[in-house]
Specification:
This protein has 15 helices and twelve strands. By secondary structure, it is an alpha/beta fold. It has three domains: 101 residues, Rossmann fold (3-Layer(aba) Sandwich), CATH 3.40.50.10800; 96 residues, Rossmann fold, CATH 3.40.50.10800; 76 residues, 3-Layer(aba) Sandwich (Rossmann fold), CATH 3.40.50.10800.
Amino acid sequence: MVEEILKLKKERDAVILAHNYQIPEVQDIADIVGDSLDLSRKAADTEARVIVFCGVRFMAETAKLLSPKKTVLLPRPDAGCFMADMISVEDLRALKKKHPKAKVVAYVNTNADVKAEADICCTSANAVRIVESLDADEVIFVPDRNLASWVQAHSTKRIIAWDGFCAVHERISASEVAASRLSMKDAPILAHPECRAEVLALADAVLSTNGMLDYVSTSPARRFLVATEEGILHRMRKLNPHKEFHAAGGPKACINMKKTTLSDILESLTGMKYDIQVPSDVAGKAGDAIRLMLEASR
Ligand code: 13P
Ligand code: SF4
């Protein structure tokens, strides 16, 4: 199957992008594996005609917004993100009406119509920097309440947060992370900012998934406790074979990130599906919000 995928990939002039949470076989076949920020940069820069996006829908939509002339394929049309679906465009419009002076930051984990209502997007890698770059004292931040509270703790702005969350990261509890630490006192704890504030308070570093990869490769520590979706452990182990990686509080999986298999990728390239389209009435503004983010985080 791997050979067939590689052959078709060449014939179609395609590049395979995969998020750090994808299953190991998918990560291993991808041309580029990364976090949301890195993958959106790579999607914008690629010369390939076709992008096969192994991740969830908002990521493939982001790639399409940045490369509207390219064909962007999402091998599993049902790979959504629960957090992205926690805020609708109507919700955001109502919030903007309530706070007319505030600028709006949409986490990239949103649907394209919500991005179109934002001034700028952010990812977990650049959220504080993006918020600080805005010329406003008040900032509406949607949809993740945990990332919003992390930003609030590191920013001078007043953050108005939406009450959304990632069910996968919310399942990581402070008590289980504290128990992991007791059993491995020498291991630094790395946490994703989608985790609850109590978990972030226990962490030695709060980072995006690529930020975690950089941390573990340069740290002198021999083992690490990682509080995020379990898919990242494969990449950590592959890139750092002499170090040990453990899920802080036990492994947690995002079912949507785990949907894409090698046979889905093969079917995707064979039938050129599922072709991601963003409605033209939102594509321009949503694309601007992402491009502004990329410029502000250079
Ligand atoms: P990163 O951008 O840090 O990879 O996070 C994406 C995500 O969906 C986290 O749940
Ligand atoms: Fe969405 Fe959470 Fe899955 Fe990330 S881990 S894609 S935020 S549901």
